[in-house]
Amino acid sequence: MIVAADASVLVGELLRTKGRELFRHPALHVVVAEDQWTETEHELARRSTSWSPQDASHRTEGACWSNQYAP
């Protein structure tokens, strides 16, 4: 299944354990425009620096995002 997603959806789902589980599903392929991916990276970095180390490790455990399709 191919799904197009914007930054707000990606950030929201990647911050949730269930969302990260969804993105790890082998049948799911998420398509993100380059500017949306840049915004996603920015927001995830910004939000992760505002957590305590214990909270950040809990929320990002098993996170699975990469920029594998970038030019």
The gyration radius over C-alpha positions equals 12 Å
Q: Order of strands across the biggest sheet?
A: 1-2
- Count of DSSP E strands? 2
Taken in chain order, the helices and strands follow as EHHEHH
The domain count comes to 1
Helix % is: 40-55%
Low-confidence stretches: 52-64
Biggest sheet character: 2 strands, parallel
The averaged pLDDT comes out at 76
Proportion in β-strands: 5-15%
Task: Tell me the span between the first and last alpha carbons.
Answer: 22 Å
From the helix content, strand content and strand pairing, which structural class follows?
A: mainly alpha
Number of helices: 4
Question: Which outline best applies?
Answer: flat
List keywords for this structure.
single chain; 71 residues; mainly alpha; two-stranded parallel sheet; 8% strand
Description:
- The protein has one domain.
- Helices cover 55% and strands 8% of the residues.
- It contains 4 helices and 2 strands.
- It has helices at 7-14, 17-23, 34-49, 53-60; strands at 2-4, 29-31.
- Helix 1 packs parallel to helix 3 (34-49).
- The longest helix is centred in the middle third of the chain and has 16 residues, at 34-49.
